[in-house]
Amino acid sequence: MPVTPFHFGLGAALKAAAPGRFSFLSFAAVNVLIDVESFYNLMNARFPVHAFFHTYLGATLMAGATILLFLLARWCSTRFYLPNPYRWQQLSLLQVTLGALLGALSHVVFDSIMHADIRPLHPFSDENVLYEIIPVYYLHVVCVFLGVLGLIGIDVRRADEV
Question: Are 37 and 47 in contact, with CB atoms under 8 Å apart?
């Protein structure tokens, strides 16, 4: 994805489909954290731009780091006042874990389709069998469609609660 928020479309759709089982916040957080590596590499003219955290192994480790950051933040919230936007302190470990893992692994899948420099199975293989499996334009359309569908689903669920 050329811009990290394109990844959020799937997250919105998953949140609409399973609101009580899935954390959109951890989904979005892990996507942003993974792309920090690409941003750093772009700013420093390093190649490949999509390196370790754009592998299934690296993305899984980043999901683990996201989960640990959540646990640390929740622990801190019991000792100090921390704001609670989006009710993040009420999220369960399962919700955060599911969001972080789905966010991390889908990030690698989407970027593997779009970017030639990704080696998603590294260190086990340097192949990228997903590269251009569908045209990039369609990938963007799917991400936007999922986002719109997810936002509609979330809005419908919210209206049902009222």
Answer: no
